[in-house]
Amino acid sequence: MRGTPGAVLQPAMVPHPREEQFTVLVVDDHPLLREAIAARLRSMGAGTVHEAASVAEARARAQANGPCDLAILDLGLPDGSGLDLVTELRQLGWNRLVVLASSDDPYAVRSAFQAGAQAYLLKSASPAVVTDGVKRVLDGGVYADPTVAPLLATGTRVPGTDNTPRELSAREVEVLQLVADGQSNKEIGEALSLSALTVKSHLSRIGRKLGTGDRAQMVALAMRAGVIR
């Protein structure tokens, strides 16, 4: 995480936390990293720092303490998906969620923001960049590690059969990912709460954008672009 002004994205409209102190939940299964993050947050003005080493512990903390001003979560937890935890906390009213990850995989980055994260930071980041990212989120903004920011800047563009980049919507990307996972239109509809006819319409629109109606080719084009995996 090496911070540059270009890493800052458009701010979201969320309330500002208490200026004097803020509360934090840090979720990571590595004690030394978790303690280092907690120490840095306290130096930034965190009044209370809750710690958890797993999805189960994080859920228990969230239930016991309610939404904190900020949560910093590892994606690779021993008992479940950090992305699922981001979604759960978001639904419970946590408005500031920071992902701290080892991977700069384009799919992981986009998935984190789609799940509701406000920042994506790499574990290789310098302490100063972690501070920048946390401050940006506490101020109501959105932040991406400079290494992964270009992935977001290009949106979800997929070169079609004519090599011209086409922009896919978040829903179209979700549909394509499920196609890549081998699901039928009916199964995709059930997963996304859509009718099979709506799924078919999405696929037709994707096909027109990419210049092919072949499901396998659409998936291959999206995979090469790093939009799905």
TrEMBL record:
<keyword id="KW-0238">DNA-binding</keyword>
<dbReference type="Pfam" id="PF00196">
    <property type="entry name" value="GerE"/>
</dbReference>
<dbReference type="GO" id="GO:0003677">
    <property type="term" value="F:DNA binding"/>
</dbReference>
<dbReference type="Pfam" id="PF00072">
    <property type="entry name" value="Response_reg"/>
</dbReference>
<dbReference type="InterPro" id="IPR001789">
    <property type="entry name" value="Sig_transdc_resp-reg_receiver"/>
</dbReference>
<feature type="domain" description="Response regulatory">
    <location>
        <begin position="23"/>
        <end position="138"/>
    </location>
</feature>
<dbReference type="InterPro" id="IPR011006">
    <property type="entry name" value="CheY-like_superfamily"/>
</dbReference>
<dbReference type="InterPro" id="IPR039420">
    <property type="entry name" value="WalR-like"/>
</dbReference>
<feature type="domain" description="HTH luxR-type">
    <location>
        <begin position="161"/>
        <end position="226"/>
    </location>
</feature>
<dbReference type="InterPro" id="IPR036388">
    <property type="entry name" value="WH-like_DNA-bd_sf"/>
</dbReference>
<dbReference type="GO" id="GO:0000160">
    <property type="term" value="P:phosphorelay signal transduction system"/>
</dbReference>
<keyword id="KW-0597">Phosphoprotein</keyword>
<dbReference type="GO" id="GO:0006355">
    <property type="term" value="P:regulation of DNA-templated transcription"/>
</dbReference>
<feature type="modified residue" description="4-aspartylphosphate">
    <location>
        <position position="74"/>
    </location>
</feature>
<dbReference type="InterPro" id="IPR058245">
    <property type="entry name" value="NreC/VraR/RcsB-like_REC"/>
</dbReference>
<dbReference type="InterPro" id="IPR016032">
    <property type="entry name" value="Sig_transdc_resp-reg_C-effctor"/>
</dbReference>
<protein>
    <submittedName>
        <fullName>DNA-binding response regulator</fullName>
    </submittedName>
</protein>
<dbReference type="InterPro" id="IPR000792">
    <property type="entry name" value="Tscrpt_reg_LuxR_C"/>
</dbReference>
